[in-house]
Amino acid sequence: MISFILNNTEITTTEPAGSVLLDFIRSQQLTGTKEGCREGDCGACLVLQGKISGNSVIYKSINSCLVPLGNVHGSHIVTIEGIDTGVLNPLQQAFVEEGATQCGYCTPGFILAETAYLLKNNQPKADQAITALDGNICRCTGYMSIKRAVTKTCTVLSESSGNAKTSSSNLSNLIEKGFLPEYFDDIPGRLKKIPADTSYKIEHPEYVVAGGTDLYVQKEADISDKNIRLIFNSIHLGDIYEKNGFIYLGGGTTVSDFIESDLINRHLPRIKDQLKLHSSTPIRNRATLAGNIVNASPIADMTIILLALDATLLLEGRNGRRPVSLRKFYNGYKKYDLAKNELIRMVFFPVPSAHSSFNFEKVSRRTYLDIASVNTAAYLEYKDDKIHRAHISAGGVAPFPLFLEKTSELLTSSVFNKNVMATVLESARKEISPISDMRGSAEYKSVLLGQLLTAHFLIFFSQLNLMDQEL
Q: What pTM value is reported for the model?
């Protein structure tokens, strides 16, 4: 049995846990939630998912076309109909006044994506609010009218929001200002009455599903009516903590969890800006680290980052647990060291040194919601004016996410200068094996990696005159 609250209605259903949330929503005659690309790219199907956290509910935007119905057990799912107060709320009114809706097909997704941002930020800023729409596409307006509507809403709300500091007080403020109906106040108590989720305990599943952001694009028809084990809500799989010189990340940690972690931001202070290049907000809210790793894409952003951080995987199966270095995990295209009964329980890496630098670079045809042509991450530690340790990784230039072992060794113990950079760039070119495909020719990818490696060095060694280095 799957139990949750859909807008203001308590739902209990025996529909298959692997069936798609979007289809269930529309079967309830809630047709404001649209089917568009069915791949998580357009945002027409975007809804809010609220989960209990203490005495409050934390809301995030999700693409309902990629969410297994079983994953919303114990949640509050909000569609565009669920924020109806009887009149247009201030955000909707701003969209009308600024001409920010034309055909209207995408508009519910835009409104809900922005509502998720407002629920999280009691002092909204226009630039951040616009970025929160990175998972939404509009084919009519050209976006400027949408940006004006969002900016107007942020200005009005920030001037009147007071000093709300918690999610519950922020929610109350949005209810008071007419953005949300009053029933939202009762949701925490109602959610607490729903029995705990036990879907992650299913034995002998045909599929094990975490975030599903790629699996449901590729295999939805195969999964929807099968016996599946849902681990997205599993206890401790989303933990992030530091212990004995290592940072530990549960396999179910989402990209959003990673970005928003105080611990991660303390040790990798630029990671929040760097990972804006990863997919979009609603995808990051679902995509997990373990899923990114076992999907084994040669250009997996998080895997490239974790390779540069010298990550180790803790695999768990019927025979217990075993560690495997992420560098040694892949042995071919879509091939890796993981038994059928194993999953990635934890990912851990050494705490970055206080004398270190980290950077991530990515080039894709679109800024958001696109697969990289080439991506790369670099981690350097310094000691006595030398590079004490170097880890360089690259994606899109080999059959799997690649750790540039020889290139990293060349950097280690060196005093960086133009000659070292030239040697490193040449080494990287010899270490890769790109192919020509829809994202670029092999020659283009080789040149592009050289440019991105140079970008690392320009950031790490800004005091050196590297700009005239011939690439």
A: 0.93
